Amino acid sequence: MNYKQAEELLPHLPPHRWYKKSLDFLVNQKINKDNVSGVPLNPRLLESVRENGFQSPWMVMENWYPLCGSQRLRCAMELTEEQRKNTIVSVLKFDNSVWLPFYFWANKKEGSRCTHIYMQMIETIFKTLYMRQDDGSGIPMTVFETEGNELHWDVRDGNEKQP
To answer: Given a cut of 80, is residue 154 above it in pLDDT?
Structure first.
């Protein structure tokens, strides 16, 4: 998707608002404390965040759980509380879960598939419009995403780590 296409789709995003929040606020949301620690730590992304800061905004659900930024939020958990309190980031927060009706589809597997497709489109629009292409030092953000996706995610891969 190119920038012009994403711009044309922007009015079709679910109702949302922009906020400025500290990393500490995001880390300390109950849903994030309970779930983001299960996101695998991407060591190179952590190094980049420590050197270059957080360059791009987050996209979160109405409960502050990240739809875009879970790997970065996992890295934030490794920072000191003072660093988290002093780092303010931009956050696009959806007002409600407009995708929720898909979970009530008679065919649960199909409903889940539709939800994932919808979420991927929202994420693509968001990333095209708002995400930096690199980390501030020249490393493409797609490198960190690829590396993170190659790590073991309990939620995706199951609780048992693969050798």
So the answer is: no
